[in-house]
Each structure stands twice: as C-alpha cells, then as structure tokens.
Input
Amino acid sequence: MTEAGVRVKVAFLVTRDGKGGIGIGDCIVITFDDKDDASRRKCIVIDGGYSKTAKVLKSYLDGENITTIDLVVATHVDDDHINGLKAFFADYVDENEPIKVLNYWGPEPKRPDAITISEFIAFLPDVNDLEVKELSFISQSVDSNEELWESAKKTVGEAHMWHPSFEGRDSLPTLFSGIKIDILGPDKQVPSLELKSAGAATRALEKALLSDAQIDLRDAGLKNMILKAANEIDRTANNQSIVFRLTPRDAAGGEIPSFSFLFAGDAEVESWTTMIERDKGSLKAEHLKVSHHGSATGTHEEVLTAVKPQYGIICAGENKHGLPDGGVFKLLQEKGVKIICTGRNPKEKIIPCAKPKYQAKCPRWDKVKCREIKDPVVFEFDTDLLLAALSSPQLFCENDWQS
Ligand SMILES: [Zn+2]
Ligand SMILES: [Zn+2]
Output
C-alpha cells in the first residue's frame, strides 16, 4: 500500500506599499495536503503586508483555488504586517464573500485590567525618581490590531482565536496532522492595549522629565504601575512577533527537517536572545524567513549559528529605512546562506540593486522586460519524493556583497 505524501508549497508574496508599488511587508501563504483530510488543500496565511496587499493575497489564493484559510497568523501589530489582513477581512471574508477563515492567531488585543493612558498620565505630576534611560519607547499601530481582532471575531469566532506565546504553547490546539508547528516566540503575550498605554504614558513621562517638571514619586501603587509599564515596553512590538517553526511530516507522521521553515516575523535581538538561550536546537531550520526585512537588529551571527539555514528569504521592497541591511546580506553570504528577496530596494545605497551590474545577477529582475518580477518567491516540496522544486532556475541572489 502506498500512502500519499504531503505536498507543501510556501509562497512569499510581493507586497504593496500604501501607493500600490512594491513595498516592504510580509505576506506568506502556505498550502499543503493534510493526510487526515483529503477533501481539500489546507492553507495558512502569515501576515498581510500593507492594506494594498489584500488584493495580491486574494488573487494568489484564487490562483491556487483556495477558498478556505485554515489559519491566519498576524505576527505583530505593525502596519506592514496587519493592515493588509485588516483590508482582506473587510473586503473578502464575510458570510457573503467567497473566503472562509477557520482559525486566527494574533497579538492579544486587550485585557480588562490593562492600564489606560488617562489613568497613567493622571499620575505624572507625582513622579520623579524614574530614570529616562530605563524606559524604551514604542509607537505602534495597536488600533489596527484592535480592529483586525474585532473583524476576525465576527467571522472566525472567538472560540477559534488565540494569541500564541511560548509560555502558553500547550494550550494551543493542534490544527494539522501534515505539518508540525513549534511556537518559539514571543515568550508571553503583552496585550496591545497595554503596549499602547505604556508607550503613550512613557512618552508623556519623558516629556515631563525633560521639561524639568516637578515630579514626585510618593505613591507605591504608582511606582508599581510605572515599573510594570516600563517592563512591558522593554520589548518593543517587533519583539512581540509570533515566531514559529513549521516542519512537514511524511506519510508515517515522521518529521522532515530538510524542509523546515522558521518564520521569524520582525523579531529583534532581544527576542532572539531569549529564544537562543532557552533552546538553540529548537531554532534549527532549513529555510529562514529573515527577520524584520533584513534589518541589522533582526539578524546577528548567533541567530545564524542557531538556525543554520540553507536558504534565507527576505521580505523587502522599496523602502526608506535602508532595508535589507548590507551587513546582514554579507553575514548571510559568509554563512553560505542562499538569499532571495521578494522585492528590491532601489533607494538603498549599501545594497545598490538598481545598478545595472547588480541587476544582471538579481533573480528578481526580469532581464528581458527590464523590470522587477512581481511573482511570489515559491518553495515547493513533496514529502514522498523528498524533492524541492524551485520556482525559477536561478532563484537566488548571485551578487557578491562581500566586495
Ligand atoms: Zn514590525
Ligand atoms: Zn515589518
């Protein structure tokens, strides 16, 4: 008797910026056969880029004949990850619309005991012995996350929504038999309302301290509240990224590490340090979705030593942040990682992809039509054949960024 293997396809879509051009952001679609349920291909969507990416996502799903998404993962509250999901839910997921979403993982939107901004700011005139340097600052699109959570609730239903963390990983239901999912980060979920409150309160506090306002810390409850907020924003929204490893299983249920993927969201050094110190081995993966669009704070040597990826996929595009970072490119190449970007950043000076001599060796540049390739970066795999089929014969960057 021959049992069917598992076909897995991982597509990194080319996301759009606010104007519809190729921009930064993540949007990843994973489709696979689940051996316990042959009725249809299963589908996971990780993030949705900026809002204009919703259309790109819908047309990709149409092309794959996918009308049911088994799991939507919103890694963290930033616009370039969740605004597209928000637009996708608004435009395509509804009882009258063709797309169904069965389960949702995303940042926790709120908690009843969250500190409110006004509560916090009301205390400010009485605070003085907190050092500014203890506080870090965030300004994140938590409102979008609240809206996304609410619209998902209408269609997915709260009983099928979770905010995964390493701490709470055992309470997550196992959704699939054809693949294994290991939750690696964040350590714990910080409700976004708290992130927002703490961020706003901290900014206000800093302003007060800088303006030499007379602030006096007398209230123990107040001090606790500030320290709690300071602790919670110690990790920025990026470090709250849901990070997980996906490993396909063969027909007998055995794991196939040679086709594992580590989806790192926008995890930064603090999140990586926690994950590495906890269990280096749990990070090992053949394919790494390079964290935070290839930023210098998203990848450092220890990350690559722990993950040991063969392939690095960078979700990038035109952006003013200078991403991907030239140092990260070099580091990946030093470690022998094959690199592919979803989009190119012509504005970048360190990685000058726009120059003709680099275009020639860029797999994302159509040399005949002289334009950027907008098809997704696709990895396909069949657990029976143990074969990986790549979407293009020269998929990886052939430029030498060492020189
Ligand atoms: Zn982010
Ligand atoms: Zn991002």
Remarks:
- Residues 248 and 256 are 6 Å apart (CA to CA).
